[in-house]
Amino acid sequence: MLSYSAVGDQNAAASGAASGIVKVETPATTRRAYIFKWTVGPEGIVATDNQFTIRLKRQSTAGTWTAVTPSPLDDEDAVSLCVAGSNSTAAGTAGVILIEVGINSRGGYTDVALPGAEYVVPSTSAAGIIMEFGTISAGTDLMIGTLFWWE
């Protein structure tokens, strides 16, 4: 099983074009990705307590993101067939929300899927799963997110 990670960051912003933290998508119809773990938390020192919701959401078109090279968790693994991105500037076509959690800007959150209950990225060109801000109470704190998946 080939396993990878992608790390991204984004300043807190209400849901929309510039709210995406990190994503993984399949550029072709050859293989699905299974997100088995994701984590999000503050990057650097956070001065005040702010509340956010962070969600994983399906996306059917790519949107505009800064490219991130997926990192194999085993250095001997082949290059990922998926593509990843960070820090969205234009939203893709949104789909359903898979999970949404509330967090404090000074804390973090980690979700580990039970085997067989991973978040599945379909094998459809440009389809993906994104991590984004849902709602924010205040502030523009910089948050860092990581997606872990296997192909």
Question: What would you note in describing this structure?
Answer:
- It contains no helices and twelve strands.
- It is mainly β and 151 residues long.
- The protein has a single domain, classed as Jelly Rolls (Sandwich), CATH 2.60.120.
- Strands 1, 3, 6, 9, 10 and 12 form a six-stranded antiparallel sheet that branches.
- It is globular and about 45 Å long.
- The model has no long low-confidence stretch (mean pLDDT 87).
Compact description:
The protein is mainly β and 151 residues long. Helix content is 0%, strand content 58%.
Secondary structure topology:
Elements: E1 3-11, E2 20-26, E3 33-42, E4 51-59, E5 64-68, E6 71-72, E7 83-90, E8 94-104, E9 109-112, E10 119-121, E11 127-136, E12 142-150
Antiparallel strand pairs: 1-6, 1-12, 2-7, 2-11, 3-9, 3-10, 3-12, 4-8, 4-11, 5-7
- What portion of residues is helical? under 10%
Question: What would you call the structural class?
Answer: mainly beta
Distance between the termini: 7 Å
Number of strands: 12
**CATH level 1 class label:** Mainly Beta
How is the biggest beta sheet arranged? 6 strands, antiparallel
